[in-house]
Design brief:
By secondary structure, the protein is of the alpha/beta class. 23% of the residues lie in helices and 30% in strands. Strands 3, 4, 5, 6, 7, 8 and 9 form a 7-stranded mixed sheet that branches. The structure holds zinc ion. The site of zinc ion has 6 residues, from loops. The site of zinc ion (ZN) has 6 residues, from loops.
Length: 269
Amino acid sequence: MELDGNGWVDCRCGARHWGRHGAAGLFLVVDGHVLVQLRPRWAHQGGTWAIPGGARDSHESVVTTALREAQEEAAIDPAVVDVVGVRRMQHPDWRYDTVIGRASVRPPVQEHAESVLLDWVSLSDLPDWDLHPGFRESLPDLLVPRMSLVVDGANVVGSRPDGWWRDRAGAAQRLLDRLEGLAGRVLMREGKRYLAAHVEVVVEGQARDVADPPLDSLLRVVRAPGSGDDTIVDRSRNLSDVVVVTSDRGLRSRVPDSVPVSTLFEWLS
Ligand SMILES: [Zn+2]
């Protein structure tokens, strides 16, 4: 269904938002500068600066939406964007996902008719600009350190006596449901704020039968071809800002020393 996201939502927060299936935008950072666009006067809360973005169509992931909008509004080639995470603002009946992207050099950009002006602004100057209220509200979360949580599905599921051994895929699904509330949010740990910009769950054996998360989910399921621990060690070496979530001491000793290891309880409390 092309363009089935276009439309207003009367949200129980009292505001009216654009995007029947939510909206998403691209926060593209290159060398400490962010691409922003001046929204046209006729647009909702126009005349302010924000990131390229728009309504999500039901067949799109939030990353797909953000990259498509950036291409439509600023002619950004999606291939040059390295997506490093997502920040989610959840409303009662709507949400906005800010997709955080990086590029090694500033890609060529071009104003679309819909956007009056594009500019690169340094992260430190950004708060002084006349920003769209929603974008301004998201800034503190976008500037805290990011984390990629790699969750040891077998260990975390096995630590709860909820009958998981009878239905491993069902237990994995319950874990995904719990983790859904963490992805894209700012979490506290030891008094510091972190953005859980990427959350993935590594599953093995029968738990691999768990269903894929819905398109608009920020969770990723990684099905280990063999041992889940091997896959987790591999992922911990290849992701940036990674934190491994497990209480398995054997696994803890196998991940690189530079990678923090924590239990899920620390993040849910
Ligand atoms: Zn709302």
